[in-house]
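Record passed on underneath.
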Amino acid sequence: MNLLNRHLIWLTFRRTWFRMARTISRVQSPRRVTASLLAMIFIGIYIVNGVYMMSQRDGGDPESLRMWLSGGMVLYLIYHATRCAWTRKQADMEYTEAEQLWLGGAPISRATFASYKVIGMMISALLKTALIMVALAPDVSYLGLLGIGVFAAITLLETTRMIWARIITGLSQRHHIAVKTAMTAIGSATLIALLTQIWLITPHGSPPPQYAMNVFPALGAVATSSVIQWMSLAWQPAACLATTITLTSWSALQAMAAITTVPIAIFVLVRVDQWSADTKLANEKQRLQEGNYRIPTSADTLCDALPVTGQLMHRIERFVPQQFQDSVALLWRQALSIRRYSGTIAFSFLVPTFLCLSPLLTGRVNNQWIFIIGGIAMCTMMLAPPALRLDFRRDLKRVLLLRGLPVRPIEAVLGQLTLPILITICFQWITLAIAALILHPGWEQFIGWGGMLAALAVFTFALENSVFLVYPHHENAQGFAMVVRANIMFLGKILVIATTIAALLAWVSICRSLWGSEVSSSVYLLGAITGTWAAAIAALMITASCWQRFDLATDLPPE
């Protein structure tokens, strides 16, 4: 091992150790004691509940598990490949700012740099392997072989994801459009197959939760189909090794094949990376020969739109009170950048709209409206925040500029959060309007639930941003902290939904016991809307407090 490789390995472990020490220090911080205590409680509940559920579950069929493992990797790869085809910016094999500081001037070959990137990714792969081992322990005979197989499969999956990202980077505009079209067709076909399986295995007339419960069996059916299994040939050795029943010489060959796929994938990554760099250089030379000295980008379209949007902003400012004009300026800044994401945002909410309206197809007239309301609430809390990162979560690298603006904390919060909240409310009201035109629940129901769901949107984005400001992270961050964060946020949102439902039911009982049937509905509606908006405003104030306490010296995470 030469000196350069030793320094890269040292840098990888040193960075990992620093991140672990920093996480422990932040957990012990008095400024984050409440968030840290809640995180520990949720982690404890999650571990105890997970161990109990695993101990009560019977073992499954090893053959089905083998097909599910290999096919599941391909399904995730199809999802990522489709998403990657619609994104021109790929950062997997690019230098971060920290790596530019430490490695930018070093004589590092792309092969060494690719290996360095894959080794850094293996740390998060180890954590994912541990979680999967806990879930699949009752289904296998050899826990060690399960760990080796799952780790090799995840590492191969992540390396293949990086390979595909480099392929997308090296494509010309014409080829990129063709690949985008092909991957959209493949992704749509996979989604149609999944919906068809859900429709087939669920009896007609079942309640909507039954359809949701059948998503995982439907995923298993799609993953074990012959087409997906043929596409998962590279993951077959690792899947066979993970589900080994008896140790034979064939098991040793499977282990060798599973482990060998990782260096082969790294070799392919290096070759594809070189091809991508050569292709980009050749395309640039061709443009120069043709006299095309600049490439039209979304920034050009943005500059063309500046005069029009500037006039619109000045017109809006005439009707906005003086104390909120700073928020309007930040909102205008967010609206300028949304032009680049308009197609992605529209597609991101098109599928949830169909999912929320799917109870109309179940044939159960009595409870369709309430299930549609529940679907909108779930999409608002679970799907809208990841799809609309047009707030503090996107501006971490520009936080120094934001902190330097002479803007009050509450104005900064309103300016950053208003646009994603408005988009989410538009999704809610469009879905509600379509359902109301079909079910005719009445204006009282429409306005009441519309008001409460709008408050839920405000509460959700305020909660997401307050947690982010307390524990900030970069967009592509991975590791133990991110896995814990994702689980805590998921459990926390489920707890919020359960608490809200319980509070609304309790308020119904109080209204019926204190007032007559004619008055109770109006009082219930007014009280429910008032209570939900009070919680939403309180969440906004908490977010403003977190932004005011944000410390540039200690809160900015390293890359």
The longest helix spans residues 249-289. Confidence is low (pLDDT under 50) at residues 296-308. The two ends are 27 Å apart (CA to CA). The chain has two domains: 64-87+114-189+226-243+253-276, 298-548.
